[in-house]
Amino acid sequence: MRRLALLLLALCTVAPAEAQVRGGTIRIGMDADNTTMDPHRSTAAVDRQVYNNVYGKLVDLDGKFNVVPQLAQSWEIKNGGLTYVFKLRRGVKFHDGTDFNADTVKWNFDRMRDPELASPRRSEIAPVKDVKVVDPHTVEVTLSAPYSPFLTVLTDRAGMMVSKAAVEKYKDDFARNPVGTGPFRFGEWVKDDHLTLKRFDGYWEQGRPYLDEIIYKPIPDSSVRYTAMRTGQIDVMHQIHPKDVSPAKSERGLKVSEIPSLWWQAMHLNNQVAPFTNKALRQAIWYAVDRSVIQRVVYYGQGAPAWGPFPPSQWAQDREFADWKRDVAKAKAKLAEGGQPNGFAFTIKGWNQPTQVQELQVVQAQLKDVGVDMKVELLEFGKLLADLNSHNFVALRLGWSGRPDPDGNAHAFLHSKGGLNRVRYSNPKMDDLLDRARSESELGKRKALYTEVTRLAAEEAPYIWLHHDAEVKVWSEAVRGFEHIGDGMLRMKGVWLEKK
Amino acid sequence: MLKFVGRRLLATIPLLFFVSLVVFALVHALPGDPAVLFLGEEATPETLAKFRERLGFHRPLIVQYVEWLGRAVRADLGRSLRTNQPVTDAIVQRLPVTLELMAAALLVSLAVAIPLGIVSAVKRNSGVDVASTAFALVGFSTPGFWLGLMLIYVFALVLRWLPSSGFVPLPVSIPENVRSLILPSITLGTALAALVTRQLRSGMLEVLRQDYVRTARAKGLPGGAVVGKHALKNALIAVVTVIGLQIGGLLGNTIITETLFALPGVGRLMIDAIFSRDFFIVQGVILFLAVGYVISNLVVDILYSYLDPRIRLS
Question: Does the predicted interface ipTM exceed a cut of 0.90?
Fold first, then answer.
């Protein structure tokens, strides 16, 4: 009896079930293989997953998209948003043993800004005018104009610090020999088969990471990937098809986490080509489409209907959207106003991918209710992008992965000089709102400006937003300590595997 | 013999030249700009121009073609646009997977088809024959991807005997390597097995009716020897022809099988490259496959002369 009591006591003291376990290998099923290991040259979204564990960033995001310290311990914004002074963390080492300091930060910015490297990061940090080393642990970044999204830009690849010594040693082959300051160092990469990361023992955060090893396995087909998850060949699954989410929730041994992402899906209406030069006809489409049906039927109830560029995960979203509804009578009135009381016909180009095709079919049926005949032309993705960029479309369906700062979900698409404004929408009032929201630093004022942006966009309907995707991850029960953030990144430094 | 092989190889040169031209033209006729696909929607026109210039895409197509061909004859197929890896390295790295998969599929199909074909010919119209005909019909008309999905469902998901995807290289673990290839090789090999069964059955039936078989039987040779030695060898000629012709189809089907089972083979290399407009990879792989196809046909021709000495190689 005493022994039993002792045993129980022992169990009670040892058993806080959440005690982190060190060691072990975690296998992550990815939708695609990495393209390069150099964050300053990467263009594929999937690359960021691995980078988040190999490279330290100046700053990171928390679950609410707040910017939190990482390699920069603190920062100060001066001169009305023109100057950012970063205080860097001390004692941080790269995987190759070299020190991380202010010189490295300056060198990293210079590398991204070098026209010769043609880095995709260059346009992301275009507002940066100058980077100055104040002392070994302080860097001062000067912008050419106030740019509120600057810090969140640094939570992605533009904020990832690479080892200068390694770049100088490997040159172009740095892309296959990456060296960062992250919790895991590069192990090996067998293209299309696996990419392995190993624990970095010199990581600056005491006691972390817990895992010995991460293996990324590219399994492009989502049902094959889901099967690998169910058969225990992978421990974490990135990107699941909406139809599999509900079954996954009832599958024994699996955990499913579903949170709002930053995505939007939309129909791009070419504002410079008939019939969509006519605002009333764009509005007719706006009112005729039932987003909630799309959410239920195409996305199996996941995500949220979209009435603008800002998803529910963003503070910029106008909450009144939730009440907006399809209005067939209004759509018909708008058709009459636009001089097409009996409806009209147009062709939309779309990507030949099952979910997107289904979505277009639902829209097609809905538009038929008001007499609009939407023809669907399905294209391969490369061709679709080419047509988008050359403005060769009347309407085109495409999504946007979104950015943590609302500016990244709207400016490029709605500003007359926006880099992704392929619909050639132009309204000086919209430009002004977007520019002000970009340079404004006070959150309350920015939110008010973005509400105006949303309403103006709804009024003018240059795009018909359809859906905000859910961000879903699936992992096995043994995986612990994973914090699911809306940007979908698998940050593994706090993750451990429960012993079975 | 050597002369024959030499002549055949020489004859392939214009053929390969033609293939290279078609491949190059096709790849460049694909709509969609690789620069946009690589640099993303946000890339500035300046960055795009720089990218095209770095890869020489701004020059006339004919110049690009001649240069590519000039390097290709020296086994330099260029570098992947995406990963900067030399194309030949990329192919060589994945080739063992595809070859092993094809060999395993061939093995599976022959292991099924040869006994089945023989028995159904010898015991014509018996239950075995009917069953084999049914198998051939179903096997040949079942789409590979569907069969693969069903096999995954039964053996990986329900029974949990075999992995649903992934590949373990031979040097890492022999049993794991075999396990990782069982389902893919059945998926890939079934259609071929069906075809070979039918081919062998009709070949055997024809041969078994020949006079020399009757003579052999009349001499009192045991049935096994008649079938195995006299009939089978002759019936195999048709089978070898079928297999030779099917190697190309088998290669094509590896693309589906490798995608379904997430095997890092040449097929998947190509499909990924097509979707991302990785020109040099696509060109390299197709050229490589064309060479492979030509060589496999050559091997089939040589095998003929072994199986039927009456066929003169000259």
Answer: no
